[in-house]
Structure formats: structure tokens, C-alpha cells
Specification:
- Helix content is about 35%, strand content about 15%.
- It is elongated and about 155 Å long.
- It has about 220 residues and is an alpha+beta fold.
- The protein folds into two domains: about 30 residues, no CATH class; about 130 residues, Lysozyme (Orthogonal Bundle), CATH 1.10.530.
- A three-stranded antiparallel sheet has the order 1-2-3, with no helix packed on it.
- It contains seven helices and five strands, in the order βββαααααααββ.
- A hairpin with a 5-residue loop joins strand 4 and strand 5.
- Helix 1 crosses helix 2, helix 2 packs across helix 7 and helix 5 crosses helix 7.
């Protein structure tokens, strides 16, 4: 039986394998270097945040402004809830970008929780409602968004649930680090248009001639 020894040679490019064997005709050791193929790992699947595009960002801004709440708040909730995956479903059955449970979706007029615009509209309405209840307190509104209004009422504040407290902290962190919306320059005002001059007319006078006839003149 012929003896064979192998060694892997490291170097630039693909690794090479050096094979040493005995030539059966001459009895000498013969070294052969073989270049091996490199297996590349498949490209990583796109993360849910890749779903954020200009159209979706515009949708968030439009709906947030319609509901008179901060687009940054809506973005922060979406990031923590679903990382911008419109098809996300939680173990508890929450659905879509803003992770609305079916009862909340129905409550705020959402017909298709997996439609991005419909889902964002429902989530924005819910956030606006909660901010109204808690007089603009974002922490309480977020706690209720996560754990329900009843839990916030029972504990008189953010419930002591680790999940809820972690959720509130994450969203507020995202909110604090979110880029400020661009400042738009005020539109340049056109110079005032000069009013046309008001014509001045001589007053009309009544006169009587030598024959007693009455006539009117502006001279």
C-alpha cells in the first residue's frame, strides 16, 4: 500500500493542499500541490429594517402629522415593535409594523393589519389616544401601548413588569437618538404688489346760464 501524506498550505487566495506520495515506478517521493475551492457562505438574509424605504418613511410622516403626533415617536415604536417588518407576528398574536392585536386593530379602524399604511394609521391613532389620556406623558402612553391601559391604572404608573419597563426604556432610547426632522426654510415672501393709483376727478358743479337753464360741469 502506498503511503500518502497531506498538508494544507496557507496563502493568498484559496488554500492549497500539498500531497506527498511514492511514485510506484521510481520509488521516489513526489509532492503534488492541489488548489482547493473555497466555499463562500450564502449572503445573510436582509434584516427586517431593510423594509424601511423612502415610501414607508413618507407614510409614517404623513400619518403622524394627520394625527398630530411626532413622526419620531411612531418610528421609534415601529423599530422596537417589529423592526420595520410589515409581516411580523408576535407569539401573542400582535400583527404588522406596530404590532396591533386584533381587538386593538378593530378598535381603531384597521381592516388589514398587514397593510403598512393601515397598520400605521391604527397604531398612530392608538398612540394619540393614549397620549390624550395621560396628558402627553410618553412613558405612560408607551407602557399602556405595551401592557394595556388597565395595567397602568392598576399600578398607578408604569407597571413593574420587566418586559414593559424594558419596552418603555428601548422606545425612549430610540426616540432620544432619532435624528431631528429637517428644518425647512420658510418660503420666501413675494414683495408687496403696489396698488394702482386712485384716479382723482374734479367735483361736479351745478351751474345756471343766463337763460335759466341748469347744467353740470366738472371744470
Amino acid at each position: 500500500m502506498l503511503g500518502i501524506a497531506t498538508a494544507v498550505l496557507e496563502g493568498a487566495g484559496a488554500p492549497a493542499v500539498s500531497v506527498v506520495r511514492i511514485d510506484p515506478r521510481t520509488g521516489r517521493l513526489v509532492r503534488t500541490t492541489l488548489r482547493t475551492l473555497v466555499r463562500t457562505e450564502p449572503a445573510a438574509a436582509s434584516t427586517p429594517s431593510a423594509h424601511l424605504n423612502e415610501t414607508l418613511a413618507d407614510t409614517v410622516t404623513r400619518i403622524a402629522q394627520q394625527n398630530r403626533i411626532s413622526p419620531r415617536l411612531v418610528h421609534s415604536v415601529i423599530r422596537v415593535e417589529s423592526n420595520y417588518d410589515p409581516n411580523a407576528v408576535s407569539p401573542k398574536g400582535a400583527q404588522g409594523l406596530m404590532q396591533l392585536i386584533p381587538s386593538t386593530a378593530r378598535r381603531f379602524g384597521v381592516s388589514d393589519a398587514f397593510d403598512p399604511a393601515d397598520n400605521i394609521q391604527g397604531g398612530a391613532r392608538y398612540l394619540k389616544y393614549l397620549l390624550g389620556i395621560y396628558q402627553g406623558d410618553e412613558s405612560l402612553a408607551l407602557a399602556a401601548y405595551n401592557a394595556g391601559e388597565g395595567a397602568v391604572s392598576r399600578y398607578g404608573g408604569v407597571p413593574p413588569f420587566p418586559e414593559t419597563r424594558d419596552y418603555v426604556a428601548k422606545v425612549r432610547r430610540r426616540l432620544a437618538n432619532a435624528p431631528a426632522p429637517p428644518v425647512t426654510e420658510p418660503a420666501a415672501t413675494a414683495p408687496p404688489v403696489a396698488e394702482p393709483p386712485v384716479p382723482v376727478y374734479n367735483p361736479i358743479r351745478e351751474a345756471v346760464d343766463a337763460n335759466g337753464r341748469i347744467y353740470y360741469t366738472s371744470q
